[in-house]
């Protein structure tokens, strides 16, 4: 083999190993992203919502546990957890320790597939398929989703598993609607309140839609339901992204350009010139990965602090 070709192959292999090492390192580069959403009724003061998602926690992830606990220093008015919290059958006490400071604030949650079933090794190429569910071949291990939900609800967080509810946050009354994980086809959108009425009691300041996976059928339902803001996780922001290009996949039927961050649904942005009546949508890239694919590239693990401002 010519020396030049050997040199090229060697450099290529070294670059591949370097990229893999970086991608593993990036999984621990926890980042707080901050966005502003002009969605509150005119004249209202700001409301700060901490959006966490896709922790995929294992007992040995001490730095992630410490970082999640430190998020309480933000003193959010509301915490929303969009699921995929667990990645190990014995992780519940570690997860409860990680979340404990956040459970002191008003909150709401939905579950993801990785709250119901433990991760299993899969062909790495499945990640790049449009519908990665087709490759599920190993019998899944149940995770303590019910126990996790009991801990959260005991702290006052609202369980939005195919449910509606309301929550008070900084004196504001927020109506909530959520679904069970659409990635597992467990979503059953809650029936509308009779006659389209608002929940009884004080006036509603904001209507939030919450889902783990942002499948378009659910986004349509939440838009039609009058949500002011939809919060979702699941995509990991693409997890392995191409710099200056972005996500390659979303692991659901959402387009890759909305794999993470603040967008609109169904239009690109609700404040687009001319206005399109769309709903604000925030997709959190999440804090974890499957323990069998501990890599992220150009897509740091994140939580997001959304500052809701008056329209
Ligand atoms: Fe996830």
UniProtKB/TrEMBL annotation:
- Highest taxon in the source lineage: Bacteria
Output the Gene Ontology terms for molecular function.
Answer: UDP-2,3-diacylglucosamine hydrolase activity
The record's Pfam families line, in alphabetical order, gives:
Metallophos
Tell me where the transmembrane regions lie: none
SUPFAM superfamilies tied to this protein? Metallo-dependent phosphatases (SSF56300)
The family database entries (InterPro entries) matched by this protein are listed as:
Calcineurin-like_PHP, Metallo-depent_PP-like, Metallophosphoesterase_sf
Q: Mention any one GO cellular component term assigned to this protein in its UniProt record.
A: membrane
Give GO terms for biological process.
lipid A biosynthetic process
Calcineurin-like phosphoesterase domain ranges (all copies): 47-237
**Which keywords describe this protein according to UniProt?**
Hydrolase
> What is the name of this protein?
Predicted phosphohydrolase, MPP superfamily
Q: Where is the organism placed in the taxonomic lineage, from the top?
A: Bacteria, Bacillati, Actinomycetota, Actinomycetes, Micrococcales
